Amino acid sequence: MKYLDEYRDARVAQRYARVISSLAKRPWTIMEICGGQTHAIIKFGVDELLPKSLTLVHGPGCPVCVTPLELIDKAIAIASRPDVIFCSFGDMLRVPGTQKDLLSVKASGGDVRIVYSPLDAVKLAKEHPQKQVVFFAVGFETTAPANAMSVVQAHQQGLKNYSILVSHVLVPPAMEAILSSPNCRVQGFLAAGHVCTVMGYTEYEPIAKKYRRPIVVTGFEPLDILQGIAMCVRQLEQGRAEVENQYARSVRREGNRPARQIIHDVFRVVPRKWRGVGEIPQSGLALSEKYAAYDAETRFDVATVRVAESSECISGLILQGLKKPRECPAFGTRCTPEHPLGATMVSSEGACAAYYRYRRQKA
To answer: 283: which of 127, 162, 277, 362 lies 20 to 30 Å off by Cα?
Structure first.
């Protein structure tokens, strides 16, 4: 298991924990901004190795979790049509809408298919010219290049029966929204390594400077996270607020330039609603004018669908780092992975799902 076990070495983890304890002279609150990091922290007990003065809070790092309720309802409306093959990654099928989820549509006879790449959906469109094929394009900047490529390929192949339902969100505006909130208690960030692999980290440098918060680009294994925390604490103790790159084996400052270019060509930046948070200016992607014909919202006339968020689910507070899953009265009782109130309980990257699976009992 080389290249995996070496980042999960318990003895090295203990050494990092001792280093962090020696560095942390004052209380600090650090937010990880990636659902993969959240699951690693809870699964491997990374937070339990840290000194009591150091608090980790979970940010809006799960793209499934921040997909707004009304977009799920739009997906359900499209997928319910008899002329549609609706394609999605599997983690979206059980995210609850106002009345049901995509899995219920499939169970009722809708042609809802799990695919492993948006290019699989393009292939389906070519094989089924009599059907409209729609791909649910959800994610941060990480998945945007592949989704953009599917549109480019459909355009090049002249496919008139392919479209995407876009729910792309951008990390830096979300970080700014958190930092500009009067309730913000975040003093440093662990930035998502996979996002930065695509985008680089130049966008984070103005944020670190403006808000005086250190940002450490961090990987997803336990030792990555512990090293990222150590780097962040060292900056906090020294009064620095810079962007540092722990995940150097994958991330370059400029990111992946071809991937960034195709995002720029196919999409444009727009305001976007985040589930439980509300609208964040310039925090999402929509198809550019050149590729507007591939917009499923317009093609199926669902752009005007508006619904209210659940009043019982506190996922918005969890995604902003203001509460943790076990502080929700419904956690593990009225809200479970089998019967979720919100996406944070059902998504494979959701904080509530992580706590339910690995830390259901109170310490």
So the answer is: 162
H/E run at residue 354: helix 351-358
Hey, what are 306's tokens? 């508006």
C-alpha–C-alpha distance, residues 105 and 78, integer Å: 10
- Cβ atoms of 214 and 241 within 8 Å: the answer is yes
| Residue 228 to residue 34: CA distance in whole angstroms | 13
Residue 363 lies in a domain: no
Q: Quick check: is 175 in a domain?
A: yes
Q: What is the pLDDT of residues 4-35, one digit of tens each?
A: 677 889 999 999 999 999 999 999 999 999 99
pLDDT > 80? residue 280: yes
Dihedral pair phi/psi, residue 168, rounded to 5°: -85, 135
Decide: helix, strand or coil at residue 225.
helix
pTM of the model: 0.92
- Domain ranges, residue 267: 1-358
**b/e map 208-242, b = 16+ CB within 10 Å:** beebebbbbbbbbbbbbbbbbbbbbbbbbeeeebe
Higher pLDDT: 242 or 278? It is 242
Residue corresponding to tokens 């005007």: 304
- Identify how many contiguous H helices and E strands the chain contains and give both numbers: 16, 11
Q: What is the mean pLDDT of residues 237-253?
A: 97
pLDDT at site 1: 47
pLDDT of residue 361 exceeding 80 = no
Phi, psi of 304 (to 5 degrees): -90, 0
- For the domain that residue 49 is a member of, what is the CATH number? 3.40.50.11740
Report the C-alpha dihedral over residues 332, 333, 338, 339, rounded to 10 degrees: -130
**CA-to-CA distance for 170 and 172, rounded, in angstroms?**
6
Tally of domains in the chain: 1
Alpha-helical runs (H) found in 101-256:
102-107, 118-127, 144-156, 171-180, 193-199, 204-211, 222-238
